[in-house]
Amino acid sequence: MAGQSHQLAAILFADIVGYTAMMQENEELAVEKVNRFREVVELVAEELNGKIVQYYGDGSLLLFQSSTDAAEFAKLLQEDLYNEPQVPVRIGIHMGDVLVHAGNIFGDVVNIASRIQSLAPAGGVYISEVVYRNIANKKELESVFVKEEKLKNVKDPMRIYQLLTEGIPAQMHLPETPVIPAASSNANHIAVLPFANLSSDPQQDYFSDGLTEDIITQLSKIRAYKVISRTSVMQYKTSPKSVKEIGKELGVSLILEGSVQRHGEKVRITAQLINAITDEHIWADSYDRSLHDIFTIQREVALAIASVLNTSLTKKETQELDYIPTADLQAYDLYMRGRLMLEKRSKADVLSARDYFQQAVSRDKGFAAAYAGLADSFLLSSFRGYEDPVQMLWQAKKHIDVAAGLDPYSGETQASLGYWYFQNFDWHAAEITYQRAIRLNANQSNVYLWLAILLQAKGDNEGALQVYDQGIEINPVWDFLLKNKVILMANMNNLEAAVALQEERISKFLEPEQKEKLYSELSKLHWSAGNQAEAILAAEKANDKGLLQFYNNGDISLMKQPLDSYYQGMEERSEYISQLWMGLQYAHAGARDKAIDCFNNAVALKEAAISLLLIRDFEFLNIKYLNMALLTRKVKQLINF
């Protein structure tokens, strides 16, 4: 018969538990929950090529081409809805032959999936045995047997399994723990100090630094530990400070230090774990291996620390520690060089990082992390105005799709996807994806920064403050987090806290040029609050003649002229110029009309970073809120909140 066909498909039913009671108790809240449920269903279904067959009241019926896609959808949906505001949903999945006719689906498979769903608890995903067997070898899709059940109108009893989701154990109830937990103690806070390079070749520093980052990554897979990010520990590479001093500064009770010596294809690694409070050595070991065993060594170090600290590992954590990103060590070497360059954020470093990542994926086309790094190089170049964002975002999405196809449960890939959504003004999708990235890998300080900026621009200052603090907890000296928190504190009218944090930033830098730059920022912070005497004093410490001239007589020429020359040179060299970032620099120099023109151009061009205009910047001179009101309204019209 025309218009109908049979196909093998996975059928998924999902509905909200207790929706009728919700409607009776609070109709407005119930409608909000069903709307959130449908938004997340549509977002995740689009990512996994799921077809929404129909919505029915508080539920939905979906069709997938494979059990794996259906299970991945169910897991992502429950983990997103586990986040506040929580929506209690139960899901059932079965697979078999269905009849597709006029957009509807028919068959026993549909009825069985519906019966299975009715057995599931709130927050649970129940699957049939055929689905369980199809996903049994997928390490990221873990299931447990629940019971054998006689289903209505089904001849034989069926074995029912539960798909486990993050934070929700079998036969569970939804917990009240927040998605991003705040630490209450530093008992399991660990800092991995830069491993010393004992090789005769100083060029091998990147290898020892990369090993440091890898061990940080491995330890971060153990959820019981809070591990300080590499950015914050690198300052101690040549520091004479004692373990006790470092532990106090980083807020950790445990420090891992060691050395690495590489000779050709051989490597010797030593490591020791120290109690940062008592200076007691807890554990030490050395490894003389082939370079090809580098991933095994990293895993053994993490397992040894877990053992000595009596930390029980879940099956998932053990599987994650077993994961090998690539079998090609040269590709891995190129990837590590790329990550180190990308961290510096300058245009030259971002382009250099891109080259390393491209070489890495050329050697190993199955290297998911390298594709994610490549995507990040395009995303950073887009957001920071180094290259045309239209081309950069297209390139980024292409590589994100490849990375997600290779490893859909990579926290790094989800972070890249969230950043892509943010730059395309889909903040709703970006926020969900950032949260998912953190659940998959809670040690990504860049994601805390991106999420906090989103919340801040959205007007959720309290939420942004919480996320900044969580990011600073794992990366306490990363200046991007600290500077943006200063801006937030100023916008929350907490000048005292903003000034204190800015002065703390100044104290962390030894280079005179960097200190002067930060004193200029402190001066503008005071000026924005009307504290003229403090502003002038800070400008004098910065030796900022342009600011002092502006404070004295309103003349901005000393600040504006260098910018005029700089951008004239870029035009003569036919280099790409971001209107948004040029506008920010002119706004910081007090050139109001030029800055507003640039901002209007940036909004018209839909530049990726115009969202920053929604955050008041205390460094703007001569620009008041009313000057920005029309601009911010235009920006908000572009955003899907």
Please tell me about this protein's structure.
This protein has 641 residues and is of the alpha/beta class. Helix content is 55%, strand content 15%. It is built from 27 helices and 14 strands. Strands 1, 2, 3, 4, 5, 6, 7 and 8 form an eight-stranded mixed sheet that branches. Strands 9, 10, 11, 12, 13 and 14 form a six-stranded mixed sheet that branches. Helix 13 packs antiparallel against helix 14 and helix 16 runs antiparallel to helix 17. The longest helix has 21 residues, at 27-47.
Tally of strands: 14
In helices, the fraction of residues equals: 40-55%
Mean pLDDT: 88
Report the total helices: 27
List keywords for this structure.
641 residues; alpha/beta; 8-stranded mixed β-sheet; 6-stranded mixed β-sheet
Summarize the structure.
By secondary structure, this protein is α/β, with parallel strands linked by helices.
Describe the SSE topology.
Blueprint: E1 4-16, H1 19-25, H2 27-47, E2 51-56, E3 59-64, H3 67-81, E4 89-101, E5 104-106, H4 108-119, E6 125-128, H5 129-135, E7 143-149, E8 158-163, E9 189-192, E10 196-197, H6 205-220, E11 226-227, H7 230-233, H8 243-250, E12 254-263, E13 266-275, E14 281-290, H9 294-308, H10 315-322, H11 329-342, H12 347-363, H13 368-383, H14 389-406, H15 411-423, H16 427-440, H17 445-458, H18 461-474, H19 479-491, H20 495-508, H21 512-528, H22 532-542, H23 545-553, H24 557-572, H25 579-588, H26 592-605, H27 625-638
Parallel strand pairs: 4-6, 9-11, 9-12, 10-12
Antiparallel strand pairs: 1-3, 1-4, 2-3, 4-5, 6-8, 7-8, 12-13, 13-14
